[in-house]
């Protein structure tokens, strides 16, 4: 039985939730998100808005896939509600000689020890703010898009456990390794 699906999702002040046949539309002060119900297994759950809460129930409680989608859809809708009301952010930093980053408009430029600068377009719906030349914060309302973009930036120069260089998440811990001995 789903532990995530058992609890109804509270709709916060300023947030409205509308359920259609193909999607759940969540509107709030920070923007609007759509949770799609058009996936293969999304039709295995019923979604209702009642008394300031969103209630997700499985159509068949005995079916394993239906119970799995119950928890998944509950978490997806809960994430959308939190995103349009509060938003999400990922803090990152770089460590290395000459490493720096800059933002101009919709273009994010990284200088991370390659022979060329790494230029990335920031997806619409996300913002990148520079705290220092080596520290930046990626923020937005869509947690999925935010995580994908942060991972894409992180993979440009993964953390090196021997030298301590690379692009890190603020809460990431890299266990340093000792080099070879002669």
- CATH architecture annotation name of the largest domain: Alpha-Beta Complex
Task: Write down the overall geometry.
Answer: elongated
Helix and strand pattern:
EEEEEEHEEEEEEHE
Per DSSP, what share of the residues sits in E-state strands of 2 or more residues?
Answer: 35-45%
Would you tell me which CATH topology of the largest domain applies?
Outer Surface Protein A, domain 3
* Biggest sheet descriptor: 4 strands, antiparallel
Distance between the termini: 57 Å
Q: How many domains, as an integer?
A: 2
Q: Uncertain spans, ≥5 residues at pLDDT below 50?
A: none
Task: Output the strand order for the largest sheet.
Answer: 11-12-7-13
Q: What is the CA-atom radius of gyration, in angstroms?
A: 21 Å
Give an overview of the whole structure:
By secondary structure, the chain is of the alpha+beta class. It has two domains: 9-85, Outer Surface Protein A, domain 3 (Alpha-Beta Complex), CATH 3.90.930.12; 88-169, Outer Surface Protein A, domain 3 (Alpha-Beta Complex). It is built from two helices and 13 strands. The protein has helices at residues 64-85, 143-154; strands spanning 9-10, 16-19, 23-28, 31-36, 45-50, 53-58, 88-95, 100-104, 107-111, 118-121, 126-132, 135-140, 166-169. A hairpin with a 2-residue loop joins strand 8 and strand 9 (107-111). It is elongated and about 65 Å long.
């Amino acid at each position: 039985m789903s532990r995530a699906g058992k609890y109804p999702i509270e709709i916060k002040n300023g947030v409205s939730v509308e359920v259609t046949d193909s999607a759940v539309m969540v509107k709030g002060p920070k923007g609007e998100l759509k949770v799609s119900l058009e996936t293969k297994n999304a039709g295995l759950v019923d979604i209702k808005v009642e008394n300031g809460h969103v209630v997700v129930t499985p159509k068949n409680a005995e079916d394993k896939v239906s119970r799995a989608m119950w928890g998944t859809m509950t978490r997806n809708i809960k994430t959308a509600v939190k995103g349009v009301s509060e938003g999400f952010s990922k803090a990152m930093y770089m460590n290395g000689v000459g490493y720096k980053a800059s933002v101009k408009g919709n273009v994010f430029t990284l200088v991370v020890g390659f022979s060329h600068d790494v230029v990335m377009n920031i997806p619409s719906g996300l913002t990148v703010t520079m705290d220092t030349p080596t520290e930046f914060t990626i923020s937005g309302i869509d947690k999925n898009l935010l995580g994908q973009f942060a991972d894409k930036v992180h993979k440009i120069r993964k953390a090196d456990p021997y030298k301590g260089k690379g692009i890190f998440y603020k809460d990431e811990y890299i266990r340093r390794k000792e080099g070879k001995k002669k």
